[in-house]
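re: ur question from earlier - yeah i can do the single chain one, its not a big deal. heres the input i used so u can compare w yours
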Amino acid sequence: MAAPSADGLLLVDKPAGMTSHDVVAAARRGYGQPRIGHAGTLDPFATGLLVLLLGRGTRLIPYLDAEPKVYDATIRFGAETDTDDVTGAVVREAPLPAPAAVDAALAAMVGDLVQRPPAYSAKQVGGVRAYAAARRGRPLALPPVAVRVHAWTVRARRGADLDVTVTCGGGTYVRALARDLGAAAGSAAHLTALRRVRAGIFDVADAHAIDAVRAGDAPR
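and the output i got, formated as tokens:
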């Protein structure tokens, strides 16, 4: 695939440990294009497809944000964390659920749902970021939001871990889905791995490695 023009888009396979903004900053330096944004934030521990928009392409961000996303995720039952993922501290423990209880919870969590965003998120209340308040020990009371889950596919069951592929609408927190799935199954749960494999019509198989982005030399 050729390097992107001054206007357009660039698909990046984000590695773990980088924020979405880190990837944008690397692309700005690599391509000498200051006007770059991204559609659909990925948490630092997550990997996978991040769609960057360049120049006039940034006008498409609101539309791409709303597109369905597909994720491969690993959910660990038995413990809930303050971040709803593996990076946080355990705040609640519970017995592991029966497989039938998990299956029933998955079936119930399809369609239009109401979701409480994670305490550690970029949501704002009164101009204050939720993650900033949570780090100060004063988590915000975040209002629930409407989200949509299109489908779940169970890929593997490994003790306390459940490997799934979930297709959901834009703006859905997969961390919160994991937390709520644990509660719905009569247990507790958090996310231990997350990889975005698709966003709208775009697939991670077509994405560039971060080293190519840093060099401004997308591979052909």
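Helices lie at 20-31, 61-65, 99-108, 130-135, 174-184, 210-215. not sure if urs matches, ping me
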